Amino acid sequence: MKSYPVKKVDTRLYIKGLSGSLVFRALYGILAAFFGFSGIYILWGVSPAVLLVVPMFFTYLYRLHKIHAKYGPEGWDKKRTARKLPQFISCKRRIKCAHQTLQPLKP
Q: Rounded to a whole number, what is the distance in angstroms from the first to the last CA of the chain?
């Protein structure tokens, strides 16, 4: 009987260059833009609604895209978690020292 290796299946949600929790942040941004546009449209009219909400919405999506490109969904979640930690706990990356890579001299 032939055995097959078990592979991890990627179950994250991918939408237009975003994945993971950033997809839900984009969804919340879309909903906020819609309700903000509707409220400003009712109160002040079309021009202020378009001039205020549309640039803010595209700026928010651009910011999410930059976060995804720089950190990825896992890195962004780790960064958010690290911000919530108390000050006396710090997350640091291991730095490879130059003296560790040198070979000892042979006598």
A: 57
- 70 is written with which tokens? 């720089």
Question: Which secondary structure element, helix H or strand E, spans residue 95, and what is its range?
Answer: none
Largest CA distance in the chain: 85
Amino acid at the residue 39: G
Task: List 15's β-bridge partners, or say none.
Answer: 18
Question: 46: number of CA atoms within 13 Å, CB side?
Answer: 0
Tell me how far apart the alpha carbons of residues 33 and 44 are, in angstroms, rounded to a whole number: 16
- CA distances to 23, 24, 30, 70 from 82, rounded to whole Å, are 21, 20, 27, 16
pLDDT in tens, 59-98: 999 998 888 888 887 787 778 877 777 766 666 665 454 4
Which residue do the tokens 């819609």 mark?
34
Q: For CA atoms 44, 48, 54, 60, give the dihedral sign.
A: negative
DSSP letter at 20 equals: T
